[in-house]
From TrEMBL:
Signal peptide: none annotated. Pfam families: PP-binding. It comes from the Bacteria. It comes from Bacterioplanes sanyensis. Residues 3-80 form the Carrier domain. Transmembrane segments: none annotated. This is Acyl carrier protein.
Length: 83
């Protein structure tokens, strides 16, 4: 089964919402405003590793409290060998 780019972002939003015990999250809201803090950023990283398994050079990724899930998705896709 082929996963589309939109499906990856949708899956990221779904899993982050589940982690935060929310019904949904907006892909364009900074992660700090979603409720992601330093304690659960590791969970977000693990979620990303599952959804985007072909990421090369993870040191090129730049995420902070102002980063949105859409921006994370774009960086992960740009650094992926799968796309």
């Amino acid at each position: 089964m082929t996963v589309t780019l939109t499906e990856k972002l949708d899956e990221l939003c779904t899993q982050v919402a589940q982690m935060l015990n929310k019904d949904s999250v907006d892909a364009d809201t900074p992660i700090a405003e979603l409720g992601v803090d330093s304690l659960n950023i590791v969970e977000v990283i693990l979620i990303c590793e599952q959804i985007y398994p072909g990421v090369m050079n993870p040191e090129n990724l730049v995420f902070d409290e102002h980063t949105t899930l859409r921006e994370m998705d774009q960086q992960l896709l740009e650094n992926s060998v799968e796309f």
